[in-house]
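USER:
I would value a second opinion on how I read folds in token form. Give me a protein, with the fold worked out from its sequence. Write it directly below this note and I will take it from there.

ASSISTANT:
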Amino acid sequence: HAAGVGAVLVAGIVAALVVFGGDGQAESASRNSAQYDYEFSYPADWKQTGGNPNDWETLLGPADGDGGDRIAVREERLSYDTGTGRDRAVQELRGQYEQAVAKGQAMSGFDPSASFAGRDVVHYREQLPNAAVEWYVLHSGQFRISVGCQYTAAGKDRVQGACEQVVGSVRIR
């Protein structure tokens, strides 16, 4: 069950990142993804590896990777505007985080006002058996976009760079 909860949290983070997209400037060596209500760019040497339409989720990984290093972007629709209700959105996310911790998930470092890739995000870390996941959650309009950047020890730098591109470029369409 821990992997499932982690996937949900990662997806939520990915979704949050998508909402708070960057300036829209794409590197020449990048690809774009426009699915669901969000779009973002990612490195040209990465590819879409799957996702879950029920969770409005897109999965990415290095084209030459084995799945241990990857990024998940997930959208969550809220019933209110996060522009005026950001505190509510953050408190709901904190509640989900605390429930996961209470169930034994290895989560740490919840920061409701972090900055990453030029964006205001909620950040936390999830420790998996063979990897770590940095979660970045963006709130925009009625959306929470969560970007989960999962990396192994060997893939940390590569994932970090790709994660910055995804989080910095994610936008609600």
Notes: Residues 114 and 120 are 6 Å apart (CA to CA). The first strand starts at residue 30 and ends at 35.
